[in-house]
Design goal:
single chain, mainly alpha, 3-stranded antiparallel sheet, 6 helices, globular
Length: 155
């Protein structure tokens, strides 16, 4: 199989996954950024908005907007920080916890379904190959961005 065929397959996979994710999130009244924030809370517990901003790679102002929306829809709530009266902690509500538990179970189920019928060695080799492709793609993207930055600086 050529590199182009692998790239085409990865692009097709990403399109299918993105479309499915968008439909599922819309059905639940969520967006990808809001879900990312909920996922961080689900796996890490309550944190400050500054910690959330760092964890999801957005500005503190953007986190405020996301948390405002999640509070308004009943997925998250703010509570005073127990030891820093200037800070608040963002928590999942029962609704948020329930949605994240369902999404986590669906994530596990889909992962299992994707490898159904494959032997352990095939799964291991595939996982290793995909990790190699991901690492290489991340490096190539970073190198491309650095070259673009150099061109802008020299222009």
């Amino acid at each position: 199989m050529s590199g182009t065929k692998i790239l085409d397959t990865l692009l097709a996979l990403s399109q299918v996954l993105e479309a499915d994710q968008a439909a599922e999130l819309e059905r639940r009244g969520l967006t990808q950024p809001r879900t990312h924030l909920l996922w961080v809370l689900y796996h890490g517990g309550p944190v400050t908005q500054a910690q959330l901003a760092e964890a999801i790679g957005v500005t503190p102002r953007h986190v405020t907007t996301l948390v405002d929306a999640l509070e308004a829809t009943g997925f998250a709530r703010r509570e005073p920080h127990p030891s820093d009266r200037r800070a608040v902690l963002v928590h999942l509500t029962e609704r948020g916890l329930s949605i994240m538990q369902a999404m986590d179970a669906e994530h596990e189920s889909l992962g299992s379904d994707l490898i159904a019928g494959l032997d352990d060695e095939t799964v291991r080799v595939t996982a290793d190959a995909l990790q190699h492709v991901l690492t290489t793609l991340q490096r190539l993207v970073a190198e491309h961005a650095a070259r673009q930055d150099e061109r802008v600086e020299h222009a």
